Amino acid sequence: MESTNFVTIQAKIDEYKDNLARVEEALKRNADKVRDEEARTQRERDLTKLKNDLEKAIEYNQDLLKIAENRVQEFFSSVRLTVANENHKCNAYYEQDKNWHPAHINKVNEEEQTAEIIFLGFADKYKLPASYIQMLVPPKQPDLHEGQEVEVLLQDGKWYPANIQIFNEQAVTVKLSRWGHMHELSYDCVRFCTNPQKRPLPEREIFEIPNSLKILPNDNEHVRLKKKKKIKALKKAWRQNQIEKETRDYTSSWKNFQQKAQKKSNESMFRTPEGIDSKVGISTSGKAMTKNPERIKYKDYFEQFTKKDEEI
Predict the structure, then answer these.
(1) Between these two residues, 221 and 307, which has the higher pLDDT value?
(2) DSSP H helices in the chain
(3) Are 159 and 174 in contact (CB under 8 A)?
(4) Is the pTM of this model over 0.85?
(5) Quick one: which H or E segment has residue 101?
(6) Regarding predicted confidence, which is higher, 105 or 262?
(7) Rounded to whole angstroms, how far apart are CA atoms 103 and 112?
(8) CATH number listed for the domain at residues 141-204
C-alpha cells in the first residue's frame, strides 16, 4: 500500500534525530581536537546553529504527527455492523501505515462487532473491529442521469473517472473516460466527481488479463507460476502489437504530411525567370519594387484639415 503522510513524517523525525546525534558528537570532538581557537569558535557556532535548527525541525514534525494522529482518530466509526453490510464496499483502517483504504466486506460478526475484509487490490484477509470500518454511502438514484460524469471504484482499489450509461435498481453500467471500457458496478462503487471541471484523460488501450489467467487465492504455487508465464507472453505480444500500430500511424501521418507539402508548393523557387531583368530564386522577380508613400509634413497635414473645416 502507498506510504502516507503519517509514515513520511515519522521517517523525517527519525532522520533528524540521527543527524542531531551526529552534530552533538561533532561538538564534543570539536572541543577536544581543534586547537586553533578561532577555527574552533567558528566551527562551534556553525554546529550549534545546526543543532538548534534540527531541534526545531524535530519539534515541528512531532506536532504534525500529533495532528495526523488526531485526524485519524476522528475518522473512527461508531456505527454497528450488521449482516446486511456483507458483500459491500467500505473504507478500512490499516494500522501499519495509519491510513484508510477501500476494501470489501466478506463476513460480519454482529456479536463481536468485527468483520473479515479484503483490501481491494490485495488478496490477504483481515479481521478488523467495527470502529476500523466505514461503509461507503452510495448516491441516490434520483441524483443520477445517463451521461453524467462520476468516479467509480474498481477491483484495484482506485477511483477512475467514468460516464454513466445505464442504471437500474440493482447496478449501474459505466464507461471509463480514459479507456472506454464498460463496467457494471454496485452503487457503493460510485461517487460524484471530486473535481468535475477537470477534463477526462484521452482514451488509450491497456492490457487486460483474461479471466481464465487471473490468479485466485486458492491457486497453488505451480498454477500461479504457469499463469504468470502465460500472462507475461501475452503482455509481450500485446506490447509488440502496440509498437507496430504506433509505427503504422507514424508512417501514415508522415506520408500525409509529405503529400500536403507537395500540393502546397508546386512551383520551385529556382524556376527559370520570365523577364529579362528577373533573377533566379526570387518569387517576385521581374516585378517593380514597392514604392514608399510620399511623406507629408505634419504642418501641411494639419493645414489640409484646417482648410476643410473652413470650407464647411
Answers:
(1) 221
(2) 5-33, 37-74, 221-264, 298-311
(3) no
(4) no
(5) strand 99-109
(6) 105
(7) 20
(8) 2.30.30.140
Give the model confidence (pLDDT) of 228-263 as tens digits: 888 888 888 888 887 777 677 656 665 665 665 565
* Cross-strand bridge partners of residue 103: 90, 119
Rounded to 10°, the helix 37-74/5-33 angle is 160
Coil, strand or helix at 268: coil
Residue 199 has pLDDT above 50, yes or no: no
Quote the cell numbers at residue 302: 494639419
Q: Which whole number is the average pLDDT over 144-159? A: 90
Strands 133-135 and 89-94: antiparallel
Please state, in angstroms and rounded to a whole number, the distance separating the CA atoms of residues 13 and 60: 9
Mean pLDDT within 13-37? 80
Distance (Å, whole) CA 97 – CA 278: 81
For residues 266 and 259, what is the distance between their CA atoms, to the nearest angstrom? 11
| Grid cell locating 135 | 461503509
> Sheet containing 133-135: which strands, arranged edge to edge?
125-129, 114-119, 99-109, 89-94, 133-135
- Helix%, strand%, coil% for the chain, nearest 5: 45, 20, 35
| pLDDT given at position 262 | 60
Say whether 141-204 and 83-135 share the same fold: yes
- Provide the 8-state DSSP code for 311: H
Cell matching residue 99: 491510513
**Residue whose C-alpha is closest to residue 152's, from 181, 123, 124:** 181
Which CATH number is correct for 83-135, 1.10.645.10, 2.30.30.140, 1.10.1040.10, 3.40.50.300? 2.30.30.140
Placement of cell 570532538 in the chain: 29
Output the CA torsion sign for 301, 303, 307, 312. Answer: positive
Domain ranges of the chain: 5-74, 83-135, 141-204, 207-285
With a CB cutoff of 8 Å and minimum separation 6, the contacts of 264 are: none
The single residue listed with the C-alpha cell 442521469 is 145
